[in-house]
Predict the 3D structure of the following.
Amino acid sequence: MKAHDGMYIDGAWRPAAGQDVIEVVNPADEQVIGTVPAGTAADVDTAVRAARAALPGWTATPPAERAARLTALRDVLDARRDEIAETVTAELGAPLKFSQAVHAAVPIAVAGSYAELAGTYAFEEKVGNSTVYQEPIGVVGAITPWNYPLHQIVAKAAPALAAGCAIVLKPAENTPLVAQLFAEAVHEAGLPAGVFNLVTGLGPVAGQALAEHPGVDLVSFTGSTAVGRHIASIAGAAVKKVALELGGKSANVILPDADLAKAVNVGVANVMSNSGQTCSAWTRMLVHRDRYDEAVELAAQAAAKYGERIGPVVSARQQERVLGYIGKGVAEGARLVAGSAEPPRETGYFVSPTVFAEVTPDMTIAQEEIFGPVLSVLRYEDEEDALRIANGTVYGLAGAVWAGDEARAVAFARRMDTGQVDINGGRFNPLAPFGGYKQSGVGRELGAHGLAEYLQTKSLQF
Ligand code: NAP
Ligand code: MG
């Protein structure tokens, strides 16, 4: 798609307040593929005013009508799924097949789920002599990252719209084109002017202005823990609600009686997909000492198969960061069994699929989010040791448990300090609440739990 040189505000593409632009780069070949305006506080202010003006009308729109608009939005996204996939491939670098299967298909499914929920959710309930109403929280400031660029936009915009909120979106600077495509889709779907607004720009400028704006009632952020902490402090000072989807260092716990080959192969695929740029990735594989060597061998073989199949990471900065972590793993004494701290190609921001063995829980590569195709394999002595290691980071976003006996896996998962756990390879569920324990975040996205984030309650007594 062709980039717009304006902001989508109050139902139309309007010139930006300033002249600065952001260059969008294809990370696979380092070519500039377009430019978008770099918004300022003035653009954010115009967008928030448009959202405030549109809010009363949208809030008063019956849920069935909001559901109809969301169905139309889902249908437009579905009709443009090839274009979505091509756009994400161009600006993120993901292989086209993965963009089709995940970057396009998942947000279409999520938009569909909110089209349905908008029409069926109980916005009203009786509690004794009270009627409790779930009312929209107001104007939402949404700040999103680049790793699943359309999914992260839809996971905020769709429930906000279903709830009756108005939105201003500041997408990641690396992936603004699919955000513009989404704004076009909102327009085509016939959402009223001002209900959804887009301001492209840099985090510390446009993102900061959005988080600080007094006309924003809820800031919903997905990205790094460092920026999330900063945004939470701004929102806290203004006593406004905040939702945070942050990083992770999730554990893939392979209990001794598990199908080892399956657990290792699925685990490696989980880490390598999207070139490791997944907040919920199982980047720590925990294996019983009796099966450790076998697991390392299987993981190294599996990683080698991904060599030519994974895309680049998103930017030169991200490549440098990930390669730096690989160097640090070697320096701290972990054993590299696949991959390298050297870039595999001269052009494009590629990183080789990398596996470390002999990783101990105190190492940097066992504690910090790398956000690249890097797996750490750790050894445990018994189940209690595995649990201590699994819970031994500041994060708690996702995880996996594998066991021959499902009840044993469930019992282990219930003791993990984390928001989601896949049992023996359980499938992704777009209706299941997604979000973090501990420093992985505040609040939940997706399904009915994700809708509730955009509502506040009022009770009337009779
Ligand atoms: P980031 O800086 O946290 O970016 C997330 C979003 O916040 C982007 O839209 C960003 O704008 C914006 N932002 C940055 N500074 C801001 C500020 N002061 N006020 C308001 N908004 C601000 O993440 P990143 O730099 O893209 O990636 C860094 C690391 O974060 C990664 O290596 C990874 O570990 C982690 N990360 C996690 C997730 C996740 O899903 N949990 C997603 C992405 C990254 P810009 O695009 O202009 O920076
Ligand atoms: Mg950043």
The chain has two domains: 6-246+439-461, 251-429. Residues 203 surround magnesium ion (ligand 2) (CB under 6 Å). The mean pLDDT is 97.
